[in-house]
Amino acid sequence: AVLPLMRKPELVERARDVAAMLRQHFMVDYDETQSIGRRYRRQDEIGTPYCITIDYETLEDRAVTIRDRDTMEQVRVPISRLVEELGQRLAAS
């Protein structure tokens, strides 16, 4: 799932771009409703293995945060490596 941290136009636009890129390779949900905590919980409940968070740092460094549902680990990954990183993580699970 791709989740902008807040419903600010610049975050929503970047999040939609990332979601469109990922949809070429994976099944992707996009959600910008409610608080980020509620969106994480909703994705956890339906079994989404990874959530991609677009935040204000993303606008500066072109990196996103990948949150693992099972371990709650969060890592920053450049958008340019996101497809490769998710592919590796999904293949290993």
TrEMBL record:
InterPro entries for this protein: Anticodon-bd, Anticodon-bd_dom_sf, Gly-tRNA_synthase/POLG2
Domain (Anticodon-binding) ranges: 2-87
GO terms of molecular function: ATP binding; bis(5'-nucleosyl)-tetraphosphatase (asymmetrical) activity; glycine-tRNA ligase activity
SUPFAM superfamilies: Class II aaRS ABD-related
Cell inner membrane recorded as keyword: no
GO BP field: diadenosine tetraphosphate biosynthetic process; glycyl-tRNA aminoacylation
A GO cellular component annotation in the UniProt record: microvesicle
Record key words, sorted: Aminoacyl-tRNA synthetase, ATP-binding, Cytoplasm, Ligase, Nucleotide-binding, Protein biosynthesis
Protein name: Glycine--tRNA ligase
